[in-house]
Amino acid sequence: MATSFTRMDESTQEQWLHIGAQHALSQGRVADRMLMLLESLGEITDGFNADQLTHCLQTATLAERAGADEEVVFASLMHDVGKAITVANHGAISAEMIKPYVRDDVYQMIRVHQDFQGKHYYQHFGADPDARETHREELTPEQFALAAQFADEWDQIAFDTDYDTLPLSHFEPLVRKLTVGSML
Description:
mainly alpha; Hypothetical protein af1432; 184 residues
């Protein structure tokens, strides 16, 4: 049963309770959609040695094996999912997608990861390899350190097609666990 209003300002509390219940029933599709977008990255190489799905899986594998907590591993898996849409602002897209499911320092880690990773290649484009420093004032020292760890220890080294990378099926339960329960 759908609600009958055609304008939100004419809706009722009863209608919104119904909508809320429907959102709760369909929350599983969030994980399904995230997994679908991740799988689509298998078609994208953009000149890299590894496709972007392999890169995301390898980044998450490295984070997990380093002892990162579940939210960091989840974010490491999802960090480049925005590339399914565009490379230009993929970090912001990916960060917004995971924001309801992770704490703020993990959200910030993904939001700024491109500039942090730039330390390892921006000079090849004539850009500032110290671009991460532009985020020093906006991030707490802990957020800055986490973003640096992510970029330096996991993300920038995750292009090795010979690495023993864990499959998406390994991470699927984590994606489902963290995306259940958040509706807005």
